[in-house]
Amino acid sequence: MRQACPVPPQPDLDPACVWVFDGAPDPPVLPWVVPPDLPPRGRSPVGAPDEPAPTCIVAVDRGLVHATALGFVPDVVVGDLDSVGRADLDRWRKARPDGLLRRHPTDKDASDLDLALEFAGTLGPDRVVVLSGGGGRLDHLLTSVLCLGRPEHARLPLTAYVGKSVVLPIAQGATRELPQLLPLLVAADAWPAAGRRQAPAILTLLAVGGPATLETSGLRWNLTADDTLPAGSSRGLSNEAAPAEPGTVAEPPRVRVLAGTVVAIASRQDARRGSRSRS
After folding, report:
1. pTM of the full predicted structure?
2. What is the CATH number assigned to the segment(s) 12-163?
3. Please, are residues 212 and 225 in contact by the beta-carbon 8 Å criterion?
4. Could you report the per-residue pLDDT of 150-167, keeping only the tens digit for each?
C-alpha cells in the first residue's frame, strides 16, 4: 500500500503555469526561447513552441538537479529523493527557504512523476508543462509516458516535452487543437542540426488503458468516429500534418476523443533516415 506523505504547511503557490521537471537521467532541453542569462545548455535551438513563463516549479527527485542546472529554483520538490544528494537539498533550501518538500518513502505504489502530477492537479492549474530529457531504463520511460495518460492526468491542461518529442494526453470528451505542434510537424528547418536538412516531424496517436474512439482533422491520415483505435495498436503510428494548399495556411491538427484516452506524440526525425514509413 502507498504510504501517505505528511503534508507540511504549504507556501503560496501560483498555479497559472506549473512546470514539472522530471527526474529522468538525461536533463531536459527547453524547446523554446529562454531568457539569455540562462546557461547555454538550457537554451533551445528553436524558438517554438511558445510557452508562458512558469509561476510554480515542481521538481521530481533528480529534477531538482536538472532545474538548478538550468537556472531555476523549484518551489516544490517531490519524490523519494534517492537520486538527490544532501548538498543538492541544502543548496535548494538556501535558495528557497520556504520551499515545500513532499518526501515519499522508497517503498511506494506510485512513481515520483505520478505523485508530482497528483500534487500539481491539487493546485487547480491553468497549464502544466512537464520537462524531461528521457533516457535511462526503458520501463521507466514507458511508465512515465503511460502515466501521462492516466485519466486524472489526461484531464489536466498538460503538455510534456520528452527529449525532442512533444507528448499530449487527451481525455475522453476533450478536443485538443495542436497549433504548438505545427512548427514541429511542418517546418523543414525546425530543430536544425549541424546544417543538415530535417524532415517534418511525425505524429503518433496511442490509445491508453483500453480502446479509444476519436475524430481527427488536419492530418494526412484522419480517423473518424467509425474507427476504433485499440490499446497497443500501431494504427496511429507515424501520421503527419496535412500539407496546405498553395496560398493557404495549414490547418492545425485537431484531435477529439469520443471514448477512452489518447496520448499524442510528435517527434522529430532525420530526413536521411527515411523513418516516415508506417510499417
Report:
1. 0.81
2. 3.40.50.10240
3. no
4. 999 999 999 999 888 889
